[in-house]
Design a protein that fits this description.
Elements: H1 2-15, E1 22-23, E2 34-38, E3 41-48, H2 54-66, E4 71-76, E5 87-90, E6 101-110, E7 114-121, H3 122-127
Parallel strand pairs: 3-4, 4-5
Antiparallel strand pairs: 1-2, 2-3, 5-6, 6-7
């Protein structure tokens, strides 16, 4: 499922104009899961299936930026550091449709359910 999401993100970046979007592109210090350029700006997307400490994610983000990634986005199942780095908490690595859904770190009120994590389409987030 992790590999499937990598391919999906790569295809979405290509659809946005990143003709050079590739999996596992080696940069100087790191190898992001997906990397590509859109309108002259470089993007790295890291997909994190297992738990990862905030300080490790922060160090990887720093290394990716130092190696040439202009923007770094994390898509993570565990998202305990969502307010500290650009990250979307993936709701399920096995979606039922053609899009993935993520929590944003914000809460919304839903009638009869109370406060719930706000959700966003990962496709919409990549396009934002």
């Amino acid at each position: 499922m992790h590999y499937r999401l990598k391919h999906w993100v790569c295809a979405e970046l290509r659809a946005l104009g990143a003709a050079d979007a590739r999996l596992e592109t080696h940069l100087d210090k790191r190898t992001p899961d997906v990397f590509g350029h859109i309108n002259g700006r470089s993007y790295a997307v890291e997909i994190q299936w297992s738990g990862l400490a905030h300080d490790v994610a922060e160090a990887r983000t720093h290394d990716l930026k130092a190696s040439g990634a202009g923007e770094v986005l994390w898509l993570s199942r565990p998202c305990s550091w969502v307010e500290k780095l650009p990250v979307l908490g993936i709701k399920s690595f096995n979606p039922t449709g053609d899009d993935y859904w993520a929590h944003t770190g914000f809460l919304t009120y839903r009638t009869g359910l109370g406060l719930r994590p706000a959700q966003i389409s990962v496709r919409a987030a990549l396009r934002a």
